[in-house]
Specification:
The chain is mainly alpha-helical and 300 residues long. The chain has helices at residues 8-51, 53-62, 67-91, 97-129, 134-161, 186-209, 216-245, 249-282, and strands at 163-166, 175-178.
Length: 300
């Protein structure tokens, strides 16, 4: 006697196929979204670079070669590598999850280096504001080192264990990472804590020296530091909260990229402005984080 066919099996099969189709459509939608966002961010970065190109090349050609200038070049031009790797990840056909994860690691490296350079600018500025206080410098560098090691360890461990989504729909290219929400919040929590420490040092200096501090360079240093750290705190807070609020990593990846671009643009443009201010005051390239500037304007 033949067994009666279970009438639920066709229904279950249809539900599984419908669920699979929904997943494929959602992945394609996310990849479309990431393609638009990646293109917009690349355009934004290129436009900013074009707007400051003349001023930047004057600085590169006329300023002396120092460690600060090397830091500027790395911070300014590594994001181009970040953008290139991200665009390739988004638009190149890719059916290999391991290759996709390798590309994610590659552009993440460029992004981490860019953020580190941006933070180093303001570590040196706070060192300048605190009159070359080596205890303050060692404290900041030690904390920054711990933050960097922890950030890299948590970030790349999260990438290694994350799921990689690839489109199976013809004509839809690219891939992106998908992971538990908390994994990518921790690195930005570390950045938030470090930024909070730096802005606290800046405010303590302002409160201690607001009656005695004079000079335009000192004022520029203080204003730039507070603005940079305020933006860093805000963007870090957004990147802490967004993975918790949204379960779709494709939607909060954009804020991670945006933080890299905004911090680098602020750090490099503020350095150009500070260098130009020094040029107008002294008429020569004496700016090496105030090592050769008169006591009235000295911030180191």
């Amino acid at each position: 006697m033949m067994c009666a066919q279970n009438p639920l099996l066709p229904l279950e099969r249809m539900q599984m196929e419908q669920s699979s189709d929904d997943t494929r459509v959602a992945a394609a939608r996310n990849l479309h979204y990431l393609a638009y966002i990646s293109t917009a961010l690349a355009t934004f970065w290129t436009y900013d670079y074009a707007c400051s190109l003349h001023e930047e090349w004057i600085f590169l050609l006329r300023s002396r070669w120092t460690k600060i200038k090397t830091l500027y070049i790395i911070a300014r031009y590594f994001p181009f590598c970040f953008i290139t790797a991200n665009l390739y990840l988004t638009f190149a056909p890719n059916e290999n999850p391991d290759k996709c994860r390798m590309l994610i690691n590659t552009y993440s490296c460029f992004g981490v280096i860019s953020i580190i350079c941006s933070e180093c600018f303001f570590v040196l500025r706070i060192y300048a504001l605190w009159n070359n206080n080596r205890i303050v410098l060692m404290g900041m560098l030690s904390t920054l080192f711990v933050i960097i090691v922890s950030f890299i360890g948590v970030w790349f461990s999260a990438i290694a264990t994350s799921h990689v989504t690839i489109s199976t729909i013809p004509g839809i290219t690219g891939c992106y990472r998908d992971s538990p929400s908390i994994d990518f919040s921790i690195p930005f929590l570390l950045l938030f804590v470090f930024a909070l420490g730096l802005v606290s040092l800046t405010l303590i200096h302002v409160l201690r020296s607001w009656q005695t501090a004079k000079g335009s360079l000192h004022a520029v240093l203080v204003k730039h530091s507070i603005l940079y750290h305020a933006c860093n705190l805000f963007l870090s807070a957004v990147n802490i909260i967004m993975p918790v609020l949204s379960s779709y990593s494709a939607y909060y990846i954009v804020f991670e990229h945006l933080q890299v671009f905004i911090l680098v643009i602020l750090a490099t443009r503020m350095h150009l402005h500070l260098w130009n201010t020094d040029q107008h005051m002294h008429g020569s390239d004496t700016f090496a984080y105030m090592s050769n500037i008169s006591p009235a304007d000295r911030a180191v």
